[in-house]
Amino acid sequence: MKPSEKTKTIIVVSGLPRSGTSMMMKMLAEGGLPILTDSIRGMDEDNPNGYFEFELVKQLADGNAKWLADANGRAVKIISQLLEYLPSEHKYKVIFMERDIKEILISQRKMLERRREGHQINDAEMEKQFGDHLGNVKFWLARQPNMEALYMNYNHLISIPSNSMIAIQDFIGIPLDIEKMKAVPTRDLYRNRASKD
Q1: Side by side, which strands form the sheet with 91-98?
Q2: Are 68 and 90 within 8 A, CB to CB?
Q3: Which residues contact 9 (CB under 8 A, 6 or more apart)?
Q4: DSSP letter assigned to residue 60
Q5: 147-153 and 91-98 beta bridge pairing
C-alpha cells in the first residue's frame, strides 16, 4: 500500500463469533496498528485479552456508518454477518478469521453456559447455518471491488505464528512489530479443541 493510501483504507477484522477475531485485534494492537475500540466490554474468562469491540459497529445494519470516517488507517472488529452493510465509498482490507466450526461451537456453548444462557438450536443445525453463511460471505467478499480479503486460520496462528505475521504485514502494507504480535497467540488461549493433539 502506498503511504498516501494508508489513511484511506480501513482494516476490518472479521469472522464468525469465537473464531479468534479478538485475538487478531490484540495482535494488531501489539504490532503497532491503531485500533478502533471503546473498551466498553472488558476482558473475562472467555476472552482473557479483551474483546476489542466498538459498540457503533452494531448499528451498521440500521444505516449508521458515519463513524467509519474515524476508522481510516485503523483496525476495527466487525462480525461477518455485518460485512454486507459496509458502505461502498470506503476501501477495506478484511482479515477474515477461520476456525474449525466444531471448535467454534464448543467455545460458544461454554460461553453461553457460563452466562447461563440457553441454546436456541442444536449444534448440528448451527453448524449447517454457519457453513452456509461462510460460503455466502466468501462469495460476496470476492465480488466487492472496494474490498480485499486475507483468510487467516486460527489453528495456524497458534502453531506457527511467524509465517502468519509476515502475511498479515504484507497484506496491510504497513510495518508491524512482528515479535510483539507473535507473543499474543499462545496455546493457553487454545482451550476449545475439536480433537486432542
Answers
A1: 75-77, 9-15, 91-98, 147-153
A2: yes
A3: 1, 72, 73, 90, 91, 92, 93
A4: G
A5: parallel
Q: Which three cell numbers stand for residue 59?
A: 448499528
- Listed by start position, the domains of the chain span 3-180
pLDDT exceeds 50 at position 195: no
Neighbouring CB atoms inside 10 A of 28's CB total 25
Q: By percentage, how much of the chain surpasses pLDDT 70?
A: 80
**Alpha-carbon span 54 to 178, nearest angstrom:** 25
The CATH class of the 3-180 domain is alpha beta
Using CA atoms, how far apart are residues 185 and 2, in angstroms rounded to an integer?
29
pLDDT digits (tens, 9 = 90+) for 8-45: 899 999 999 889 999 999 999 999 999 999 876 655 56
Kindly state the DSSP code that residue 33 receives in the 8-state scheme.
-
The closest of 154, 167, 138 to 193, measured between CA atoms, is 154
157-189 residue pLDDT tens: 888 778 889 999 999 999 999 999 988 887 555
Q: Residue 174 corresponds to which cell in the numbers above?
A: 504497513
Bridge-partner residues for 150, per DSSP? 95
- Segment 59-69 shows an average pLDDT of 94
